[in-house]
Specification:
This protein is an alpha/beta fold. The protein folds into 2 domains: 253 residues, Rossmann fold (3-Layer(aba) Sandwich); 112 residues, no CATH class. 42% of the residues lie in helices and 20% in strands. α4 runs antiparallel to α5. The longest helix is centred in the C-terminal third of the chain and has 23 residues.
Length: 404
Amino acid sequence: MASAHQQPNFPPQPHLIIPNQKPQIIPVKAGFMGEQGTGKTSSAALFAVALSKLHHAGAPVHVTDPELGWQYLDPVIFEREGVKLVQYTVPTFAAMLQDIKRAEREGACVWAVELGKIWIEIIRTLQKQKPNTWGMELRAMWDDFVAQFLNSKLHCLVLGRIQDVIEQVVNEDGKVQDVKVGEGMKAGGAKNNFGYEPNLVIRMSLEHKPRTRKGKLFVDEGRVIHRAVIAKDRTWALNGQVFRWADRDGYRRGDFKYVWESLAPHFAAAQRTRKFITLDAAATSASIIEPEGSNSEWYAERNRRDVLIAEISASLDMNFGGRKSDEVHVRLAASDLIFGVKSKEAAAALSIDKLERGLAILHAFERIPEKNRGSREAVLLQVHDAIVAYDTAGEPISDDDIPF
């Protein structure tokens, strides 16, 4: 038994934190999206300053900002809080990838990026340099950025303009109409939407609060309110919540608290995971994707699928183009006849056999010397004839039909 002056010799507990050893801070991956002027940049800057001051002893904040907005926040917010802001302004995708690496090397705690101009730049560059394969190149390059974004030990904030996600559907009256099915950031991947990658997504908008004086409402006066809707929170700490941050005529030290106090529950929930898991993109690439000229069956099949999808998309646009309601209706009906699905996106998910069959039918339709486009029924009848001709012949698609 231990004496009154001795402590029992308990075995070490694995969950205890070793004295003087700082626990690892789990980085926040957040996206701010909204229309111009809704407060994306200011809100992200205040969040970045809060992270620096409260959890990283005032470490620098780095930003890739081709839109040149953060320079105005430097003397207003960052200098007053004693936080160094390093701003990069080269509006290219290649420069952005180097910016995040430099931020890591130079001891930053937060890296932020305005994605709009960079997304436009990489699309234009690839369309010019890789006109036939730019879509595949873009997906591969974007996946590399996503891995870098997720694997960085920095807090990473992405800012982008918002866009509606639109799908064409046929209503009960048989008319084609555009339907909004969601919202996303104008950047990222095949669907132009960076909303999936961040763990926290904040949708910004504006409200106007009119002034009331002696019971009379003055609509043209009053305050601008920045409305922040939590569109996604993987920690579930803030899902669906709405915050309102009043516009201010100046900044006083510590004012970052208004944004921080709203978003802090997400940071706290992330810290409770106590681990930072990274995406092992290199291992995936090395084990599956083989260099050009490889005999890998998987690689050859993937390459064939990509080319088939590109050819089908081009053929559908060429044979059934047009944006008028009746033209879109014909395209959807023709796709349904050929592939059993209406959209090009759904067709892309079909098996290679079905893709090859569909492309052969489209090519057979193209070879009809004098097409009757007088009515929807006439066009679809010719599509049906092309289907019957191919299925009767029963011949597999030839490599001459696919421009490898």
